[in-house]
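Anyone have C-alpha cells for ABC transporter permease? Sequence:
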Amino acid sequence: MTQPAHPTPPNSPGLTVPAPSRHPLTPWLLGLILLSALPALILAFGRVSYEQSQKTAALVMDYPALVTQARRFGRDPLELLGEYQRRGVNSVAIYEDVIGNLGQRGEVYLKSGADLRAETGDAAVSPRNFYLRSLKPGVAEALPARYTIPTRQVQVGGQTWTEWPTDPTFLPVGPDPVLMQQLKARGFMLVYRPYADDAVREPGADWPDVPFILFNSEEVIGARTPELLAKINDRLGNRVPALIEATPQRGLDTLIATHGAARTFSVNPAWQQRLDPITLASKYNLAARERSMRLLYVRPYPTVNETNDLLTRTTDLLKKSGVQVTQPVIEPFHENTLLRSLSLIGPVAALLLLGLSFPLIRLGLLAAAGSGALALVMNKFDPFAGAALIAAVTFPALGLVLRRARVSDWFVATGLSLTGVLFVSALGATKDSVLGLEPFRGVGLTLLLPLLLVAASFLPRQDLRKTIADVYHAPIKLGDILIMAAAAAVFALVFLRRGNATGASVSDTEAKIRQDLQDTLVRPRFKEMAGHPLGLLGLSGTLPGYFGALLILGGVVGQSSILNTFSHFHTPLLISAQRCFLGLGIGLIAGLIAIQLVRAALHLWRTYGGASEVRA
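Reply: yep, here.
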C-alpha cells in the first residue's frame, strides 16, 4: 500500500517521533464519526433523564440488630426506632419469623423429648424427638401443614403435643403481622427477608404486601429447582428483589429479568466495627450518589450515640448530593436498538481511521484489526458490547496518533476521547449493566491497548526489519535503563490500581484524601490528574530525545482514564462527567504550570555552571 500524498507537518524539534499519515479518507471518516455520534448523544440525554428520575434511596434499619441494641440499654425497640426515624431512617428490614420466635412471644411451648420425658416420666415420649404444644389456641396444630416433615399428635401428661422428628426451632413460619402493622402505622417502608428451607411446602405463598424482598444466604429461594424458581418469580408479584452489592445470589438473575432490582448497599458487621460513623456515612453517600444504590442497609453501632452520628451524617451528605430519602420507585432502563445500531458506525470508523493514520499503514491496519477482533472475542461476539470496548481502546489513542506536534493537540485528543465517551455509553449501557449485573469486559485493555497503539505509531516510516535491527544495535546507557525501569514500574502501578482490589490498593493517607474530596465534591481520578500534565509536557517538546515520547504515553493514560471512568455504567452519567471534567481542569492547569517549571529548571541547569565561571 502506498503512503498518502499529503503527510502532516513535522513534529516540533523536541520530539523524535514520526509525524502521522494524513490519509485521503481522514476527513470522510471523521465526518462519519461525528454523524454516528448524534444518535449516541440522543441516547446519552435519555440515560441522564432516566438517572435523574432515580435519585432516591431508602435508609433501611435491620430490625433484629435494633432489638438487640434496644434490649442492651433497657429501651423499647419501637421507641428507639422512632429516635432513629427522626434522624432519617424511613424503612425497616423484617426477617421472616421462625418457630423459635413463636416460642419467644408465648404462642407455643417447645420441649426436647429428653426434657419432656424427664418432667413427665412418660415412656411414650421419645428422647430423640421434639414436642410442641399451643399456648395460643391452634398455633401448634396449624404448623405441620406448612412442611413436608412427618409429625403426629400425642397425649402426654393430659396435654396434646405435636411430635417432630427434628428440631423445628428454625423452621420459617411467615411474617409477624402484628409487628408489621405497627411499623406501617408509624410510616415505615418495609423490606421483607424470607428464609429458604426445603421443608416448606409453598414458599412465598404468605409473603406480606411490601415493596422489596431481600433474600438471605447465597441463593434465592428455589434457585436449585427450576419449577420452584418459576413459582417464586410469579409470587413476587409487584415486589422488587434487592440486589446486594458484592454478594452474588444464585437464581437472582432470573427474578431480575422479570421484576428489575433495587441495588442495595450493606456493610459487613465486622467491617463496620472497624469504621467510625463519619467514615461509614461517607460510604453510604458514595453508594447512593455514585453507584445508584437504592436501599442503604444500616445496622446500629454498639452505642446509640454512634448510631445517631452515623444517621445524622448520612442524611446530611445525601441531602447535599441531591438524593431524596424516600421509598424508591424502581424503573428499568430501556434500550433503543435502532439508535444503538446507528451508534455502531462510529467506533468502527474510528478504528479504521486509527489504522490508516499510522506512519506504517500496513502495521496500523493490522493493529486495528487485531484490536477489533480481541474486543469482540472478549465480549463473546456481542456487537454492541464489542463496539463499546472498541470505542474505549480506540478513541484515547486516536487523537495522539492523528496529531502530536504541539500543546494544542492535547485539546484535539481530549475532544476525541470525549466523543468516544458517547459511544461507550450508548453501546454499553443496558438494563443489566446499569444494575451492575453485566460488568464492562476488558477494563484492563482500556489502559493497555491505547498505550500499545500509540507506541506502535512511533515507529519510523521505514522497513520494520531495519527498525528492529536499529533497536537491537542501539547503544544502551545506564540512564536509559533506569528511565525505562521507572516508566515500567509506574505503568504497572497504574494497571494494578485500576480496581483498587490488589495489593497495590490505596494507602490510609490517600483514602483520607479521597473521603474528604468525595464528601465535598465528586472526586476526580488521580490517573487523569497525573496523566494529563504528562501529556501536555510531552507535547510541548520541552524535554529532548525520547523523553517527549514517554511523556506522551503518560498522556495516553490520562486519555484512557476518561473512557475508563465512563465504563462504570452503574455510575450516573453526570457523576462520571463531573469527575472527568474536574480531572481535565486540574490536569490542564497542572500541565501548563509543569511546562513552565521544567523550562525554567532546564534553563537553570544549562546556564548555572557558565554563570559561575563568569563570576569567577
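The radius of gyration is 32 Å.
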